[in-house]
Amino acid sequence: MNNTRFNHRQVWQLALPMIIANISTPLLGLVDTAVMGHLDNASFLAAVALAGLIFNFLFWGFGFLRMGTAGLSAQAFGANNTLELNAILLRAMVLAVSISFLLLVFQQSIAAFSFYLINCNDSIEPLAQQYFYIRIWSAPACLCQYVILGWFLGRQNTTSPLLIVVTTNACNICLDLLFVVHYGMNTEGVALASVLAEYIGLIFGVLLVIRNIPVSSLSLSWPHLLQADKIKAMLLINGHLFVRTLCLIFTFSFFTVQGAKFGSAILAANAILMNFQTFMAYALDGFAHAAEALIGRALGAKNKALFQQSIKTTALWSLLVALLFTLTFNFAGQDIINSLTHLTEVREPAYEYLPWLIALPLISFSSFLLDGVFIGATLSRQMRDCILLSLFLVFLPSWYYTQDLTNHGLWLALSLFMLMRTLIMLGYYLYYQRSIMQSLA
């Protein structure tokens, strides 16, 4: 890509593979559900769903490994600093392995705390624990994959992450069918399939890394690798992003828990509508990933024109795709709801709260994009502060003072949370824009 100019097609070349990779992940959950759903005991399906929820939150919480690695790698790539680019990969891999080691050491404590919070019944918990104690061994592979995905993204390479994710998910699906359908296993078969698939994906990712690293850059010196300031910067960035991710997890978990208090029909309706939101977020995240790579490269290369064009082009496409989702939800929302459930008691509340989903893409698209901009610029502390302010000054107070509105109040609080994230991040961006422009002059 030319350092000063790029066209809309090149933005899509970065964004589209990540969109496809993101969307392939829910497909895996759908296959797990279908495989378990055809066994003769509903407890198997419930156990996999509950234990899978634990890992969704647990592994999502360490998603900072991808984001932090992407931002640092993009800047090193833009500066043509191959030595530092490879050092970033190794430092992040050491961090991922260290975190994985702690997860394995404390797996019993994590399981005890998680199942205490879930409070599932006696027939499901043993099966869910069986799944947990097998699946936890995928932690090293999963977290190291995060690092590799971020490193490739920083190098403006989104094809390799797509191949890694699709390979992992395809292997998982095939192994699911092999262990459960062919060999007659149940929860342990699904868990084992996930573990093996993660390690297959990791091995494939490492092979792609080796293929992309020039032989001339393999002579990394220990003094360079262990530079205290570089390690400190990496730990600070990842620490800020970890807090930010925990706040997001808390927000959506709180939303689900509060929605459950309004009855099973409202809970189910909210779950269906949140699937809309999740799908939309996966699509818009593709442009955030493109922004991460482009902004980081522009800053590393000290290229003002590339920085400005990256902001404008990714913002334009994010807006257009958000508008497309709003129009789709408006004109086809009820049909989509009908395709997901035949229960009238769930359809009716889903119709009632659908207008919130129609508005959310236009409310939230800027926050997704600015996440990518801030990651590329390694403004992780500002990302942390934005989410903390939005959570404690907007979301929780809005929920508290709108409880009389029941579920509408809950959706209002979530919408205000998304809006405030956008406004605060935009304020931070405008505040730092002058200093960024001066650094690129």
Structural write-up:
The structure is a single chain. This protein is mainly alpha-helical. The chain folds into two domains: 11-226, no CATH class; 227-441, no CATH class. Helices cover 86% and strands 0% of the residues. It is built from 16 helices and no strands. The longest helix has 38 residues, at 264-301. The mean pLDDT is 90.
Can I get a quick summary?
86% of the residues lie in helices and 0% in strands. It is mainly alpha-helical and 441 residues long. Helix 3 packs parallel to helix 7 (139-154) and helix 11 (228-260) runs antiparallel to helix 16.
* Unreliable segments of 5+ consecutive residues: none
Our Rg estimate from Cα atoms comes to: 22 Å
Residues in helix, %: over 70%
* Tally of helical segments: 16
Strand content: under 5%
What string gives the helices and strands in order?
Answer: HHHHHHHHHHHHHHHH
Largest sheet: none
**Count of distinct structural domains:** 2
Shape: globular
Distance linking N and C termini: 21 Å
Strands, count: 0
Summing up helix and strand content along with how strands pair, one would put the structural category as mainly alpha
Regarding quaternary structure, what we see is single chain
Mean pLDDT equals 90
